[in-house]
Amino acid sequence: MKKSDFYFDLPDHLIARYPQPDRSSSRLLTLDGESGAIGHRGFRDLPSLLAPGDLLVFNDTRVIPARLLGQKVSGGKIEVLVERILDQHRVLAHVRSNRSPKNGAQLLLEGAVHAEVVGRVEALFEIAFDPAKTVLEWLDAYGHMPLPPYIDRPDEQSDRERYQTVYSKKPGAVAAPTAGLHFDDSVMQALADKGIETAYVTLHVGAGTFQPVRTENILEHKMHSEYAEVSEAVVDAVATCKARGGRVIAVGTTSVRSLESAAHFNGGTLAPYTAETDIFIYPGYRFHVVDAMVTNFHLPESTLIMLISAFAGKSEVMQAYQAAIQEEYRFFSYGDAMFITRKP
């Protein structure tokens, strides 16, 4: 299977650089995986597409202000993007500078944060922050929200709220689980009023989510790894939902990857999971848990469009994307949403 099979041409003006004024005012394209039928709704119509007893599974990760700008004390500009917090004072980070910093290099970030390069793990640098505060405290005080590369503008104060789901809880992501950005308190209440159950997994989205597939043969692609948690409570909620004939609906590809990892690495049966996952879902994958999903529109030739193509059929997904372009839906993180049911 070729990367180019998943290419589509997207006009630049359809890339959403800012969110809609109201979270739930986004549009919602529906795709029936069985028939290929496409529909056009508003996101507030989502509860009408669900039935009492269905289970929505959200990712409760919280985006950290992970980007810091500054310089090496010895000279030269530097940009640090935290990929993972190791403990209260150390991180693994992507570093951009004219010359890679060496062990022992002293950094001054945002004119206030002192840090030191103390090691390297493959492409990432281990950085120790001034122990006067925790890493999260330094980032919260001085960090920038790590907007995706295709949102080609500086981050703004409003992004601290809007590039974050209303139910985010556990800090650790450097990219938002963007399907969740459409949910506001009114939609959550409407879902509860209809008898839709909810559960929460955690997957700390890494910067690797934006890494392009560099091989034409997608089977040669090396998938990035992210930390995921699926609790016993989630496993029980899924089992109860399936037993009553309900559907498990993942909110976002990160929730899909969490649930499917917890089953895939346990012989196809869902079980509690707390570990790294590098699961790569592409056409031919057999889904174990998820029956439907809410997702945003993804980049051409990305692992995420491959995932939804595995879920609803490649030709069906590519046709839906062409319909979205024709109808001028807004694309990517701050864009509109899809509701997709699985192709049998």
Automatic annotation (TrEMBL):
Subcellular location: Cytoplasm
InterPro entries: QueA, QueA_dom1, QueA_dom2, QueA_sf
Phylogenetic classification of the source organism: Bacteria, Pseudomonadati, Pseudomonadota, Gammaproteobacteria, Alteromonadales
Pfam families cross-referenced by the UniProt entry: Queuosine_synth (PF02547)
GO BP term, example: tRNA queuosine(34) biosynthetic process
Keywords attached to this entry: Cytoplasm, Isomerase, Queuosine biosynthesis, S-adenosyl-L-methionine, Transferase
EC number(s) per entry: 2.4.99.17
GO molecular function, one term: S-adenosylmethionine:tRNA ribosyltransferase-isomerase activity
Isomerase among keywords: yes
Descriptive protein name: S-adenosylmethionine:tRNA ribosyltransferase-isomerase
Gene: queA
Catalysed transformations (reactions): 7-aminomethyl-7-carbaguanosine(34) in tRNA + S-adenosyl-L-methionine = epoxyqueuosine(34) in tRNA + adenine + L-methionine + 2 H(+)
RNA-binding keyword on record: no
Pathway in which this enzyme or protein is active: tRNA modification; tRNA-queuosine biosynthesis
Stated family: Belongs to the QueA family.
